[in-house]
Automatic annotation (TrEMBL):
<protein>
    <submittedName>
        <fullName>Uncharacterized protein</fullName>
    </submittedName>
</protein>
<dbReference type="InterPro" id="IPR023214">
    <property type="entry name" value="HAD_sf"/>
</dbReference>
<dbReference type="Pfam" id="PF00702">
    <property type="entry name" value="Hydrolase"/>
</dbReference>
<dbReference type="InterPro" id="IPR006439">
    <property type="entry name" value="HAD-SF_hydro_IA"/>
</dbReference>
<dbReference type="InterPro" id="IPR023198">
    <property type="entry name" value="PGP-like_dom2"/>
</dbReference>
<dbReference type="InterPro" id="IPR036412">
    <property type="entry name" value="HAD-like_sf"/>
</dbReference>
């Protein structure tokens, strides 16, 4: 994404990365600003003047999604014995335009909790409360898996058992250790 935007805006990747408006991005993932406002804020955070066009920004933005991984196979296995929910810090554009219908994981989940629909992001405790409310479960009966250490800590503080994802093999070993298969 950074490479694409740097080419489209005619500036170095280092500058683009250094200007990334993290706080505004969090607002976007909380559903507090529109797609267009996110673009305008991103463009405004770059050195001025710049020639970044909205169409180029969204092409770059959609590159963040990448390819589906073999974790989907683990989801399929887990679904045989457990409900599997998806809790994601994301934005409406990725879900509306890219994820729904194109990736198996969103279809496999028994339910979804997206940050932009809740007004909260992981690791904020409130999003975990919303997730257990929506799934109608007690957090102590839930296993949360995430690659972000802060999100794992947030889940644990909300009463979840939590694992940090590092790679598929490690996840399989962690699940086996917990007696989950």
């Amino acid at each position: 994404m950074i490479q694409y935007i740097s080419a489209a805006a005619d500036m170095s990747p280092r500058i683009v990365k250094g200007c990334f408006p993290e706080d505004i991005h969090k607002e976007y993932e909380r559903g507090q600003i529109s797609d267009h406002d996110w673009f305008v804020s991103f463009k405004a955070a770059l050195p001025q003047p710049n020639c970044l066009k909205e169409i180029d920004f969204w092409r770059a933005w959609n590159q963040l999604l990448g390819q589906e991984t073999d974790v989907v196979d683990i989801m399929i296995e887990l679904k045989e014995n457990y409900p599997v929910w998806l809790l994601s810090n994301t934005n409406p554009r990725h879900i509306r335009n890219e994820v729904d219908g194109k990736y198996a994981f969103s279809q496999l989940a028994d339910g979804t909790v997206y940050s932009f629909e809740t007004g909260y992001r992981k690791p904020e405790k409130e999003i975990f409360k919303i997730a257990v409310g929506k799934a109608d479960v007690d957090p102590s009966t839930c296993l949360f898996i995430d690659d972000n250490k802060e999100n794992v800590i947030g889940a644990e503080s909300a009463g979840f058992l939590a694992l940090r994802y590092r790679n598929t093999l490690q996840l399989q070993l962690d699940l086996k250790f917990l007696g989950i298969n």
